[in-house]
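We were asked to recover a plausible sequence for a given structure. The inputs and outputs are reproduced exactly as logged, with field labels preserved.

PROBLEM: sequence recovery
POSITIONS: 249
GIVEN STRUCTURE:
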């Protein structure tokens, strides 16, 4: 259920075009629909401004399909994250028009034309090529939520000149997402170059002493750039949501 759809139902009742009982039937699945294995939160998009998203990891393809069909019936597009290749193939068989974002390990099931909800540009930046899957999850999420997104990849501190020559793009952005592994220094560098909010995403990229992203996480949490905020390790989705929310303000 979207805010626009709810308003249309209420307006139809007010005009007398829609019987009260029919409106009640349409709204009866609010605030959620119990599917047995899942309770789908149809009200979330109205309550939080961000619809429920399906986290694909740990769910079977059947469970994902059931939840997705429930959401599509209520008029919302669907974003499914953290999908294996096998689950992507299953979803493509089940849903005509599924848009696959292979690098992001995501699938989008569109519902109508995507409307722009942002006021500016979300810039997604990576330190290295290995950080791209997490960055793409952030980019796809922000795009799904209506933000305009640009990407700037492989501009980490080992070759900082690659970033400095794109400073104009940094200043153009309304909010910046930075995905970096190893020591995670890129978020601080960008935080020191721009007055825009920086959402830092530590990735689990690096050798043994990176401890699966913990080193980057701690480095970002200890950033001396006061405009840097940090999400969890590999949480591109969370960064994309937060970037999109900031972009609407």
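RECOVERED SEQUENCE:
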């Amino acid at each position: 259920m979207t805010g626009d759809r709810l308003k249309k139902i209420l307006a139809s009742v007010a005009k007398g075009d829609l019987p009260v009982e029919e409106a009640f039937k349409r709204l009866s699945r609010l605030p959620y629909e119990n599917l047995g294995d899942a309770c789908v939160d149809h009200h979330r998009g109205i309550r939080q401004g961000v619809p429920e998203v399906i986290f694909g990891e740990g769910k079977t393809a059947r469970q994902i399909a059931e939840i997705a069909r429930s959401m599509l019936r209520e008029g919302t597009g669907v974003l499914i994250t953290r999908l294996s290749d096998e689950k992507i193939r299953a979803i493509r068989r089940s849903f005509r028009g599924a848009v696959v974002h292979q690098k992001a390990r995501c699938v989008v099931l569109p519902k109508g034309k995507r409307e722009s909800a942002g006021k500016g540009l979300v810039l997604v930046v990576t330190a290295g090529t290995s950080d791209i899957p997490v960055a793409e999850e952030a980019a796809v999420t922000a795009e799904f939520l209506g933000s305009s997104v640009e990407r700037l990849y492989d501009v980490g501190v080992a070759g900082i000149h690659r970033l400095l020559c794109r400073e104009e793009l940094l200043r153009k952005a309304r909010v910046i997402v930075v995905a970096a592994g190893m020591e995670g220094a890129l978020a601080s560098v960008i935080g020191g170059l721009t007055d825009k909010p920086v959402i830092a995403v530590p990735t689990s990229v690096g050798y043994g002493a990176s401890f699966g992203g913990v080193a980057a996480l701690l480095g970002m949490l200890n950033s001396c750039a006061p405009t840097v905020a940090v999400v969890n390790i590999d949480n591109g989705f969370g960064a994309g949501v937060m970037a999109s929310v900031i972009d609407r303000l």
